[in-house]
Amino acid sequence: MRFDERRIQLKDKRECILRPTMPDDAQDMIEYLKLTSAETEYLLRYPDEVNYTLEDEKEILARLLDDEYSVMMVAVVDGKVAGNCSINGIGNKRKIYHRCSMAVALYKDYWDLGIGSAMINYLCELAAAIGYKQIDLEVVAENKRAQALYKKCGFIESGKRHNALRFDDGSYHDEIIMYKEI
Ligand SMILES: CC(C)(COP(=O)(O)OP(=O)(O)OC[C@H]1O[C@@H](n2cnc3c(N)ncnc32)[C@H](O)[C@@H]1OP(=O)(O)O)[C@@H](O)C(=O)NCCC(=O)NCCS
């Protein structure tokens, strides 16, 4: 969906713009997906699993922009993409219409500046405006930084999925399930 741009001041006093991700951001977003998944193991993808062509990515971003039930937000600092945050409906059955899922990731250079909190708080406002009643997410059990951020933004832990992830080194990792009623 389209939504109003929001400007925030970061902990280091720089300005950050939160705005819809546009089809013209496609190249930056492909790079972002590849690099952020190389910087942390806590995202679902490995870098070699980012296989979108520029055309694919443009099409996806255009579709999400027109989708009234999805939000694809990008954070821009000094004209550069710092990170991205999104919500999507869980599914197209009436019994689950009230729920959406959320994802967030920033380049490491932009961690701990307040961008994650600002993006999530804005997303919660937008999710409520769309009509969702609950936001769901899963986070790797070892990812304490993200869990601290989600708790700060009002998310509550509701369970654990055993061995939800198997990394390339053969190690298994649980996922913590969290939700926020909005
Ligand atoms: C998780 C992530 C989005 C957080 O974004 P961010 O912009 O750094 O978050 P903020 O700066 O808004 O807030 C982070 C908070 O966590 C705290 N924190 C940082 N490291 C922490 C740790 N190891 N344990 C507990 N709290 C921690 C910070 O002090 C800050 O709290 P404060 O504002 O009260 O001081 C970012 O680190 C990231 O992109 N990580 C990699 C991808 C990822 O893990 N995504 C989530 C997948 S579920």
Task: Characterize the structure shown.
The protein has four helices and eight strands; from the N terminus they run ββααβββαβαββ. It is of the alpha+beta class. It has one domain: Aminopeptidase. The protein has an eight-stranded mixed β-sheet with strand order 1-2-3-4-5-6-8-7, sandwiched between helices. Helix 1 (26-39) packs across helix 2. The mean pLDDT is 97. The structure holds coenzyme A.
Task: Summarize this entry quickly.
The protein is of the alpha+beta class and 182 residues long.
Overall pLDDT score: 97
The strand count comes to: 8
Order of H and E elements: EEHHEEEHEHEE
Quickly count the helices. 4
Morphology call: globular
By CATH, the architecture is named 3-Layer(aba) Sandwich
CATH topology label: Aminopeptidase
Top keywords for this entry?
eight-stranded mixed β-sheet; 8 strands; Aminopeptidase
Chain-wise SSE layout:
Layout lengths: L5 E4 L5 E6 L5 H14 L14 H13 L4 E7 L2 E10 L9 E8 L8 H16 L3 E7 L3 H9 L3 E11 L5 E10 L1
Parallel strand pairs: 5-6
Antiparallel strand pairs: 1-2, 2-3, 3-4, 4-5, 6-8, 7-8
Helix pairs in contact: 1-2
Bound molecules: coenzyme A.
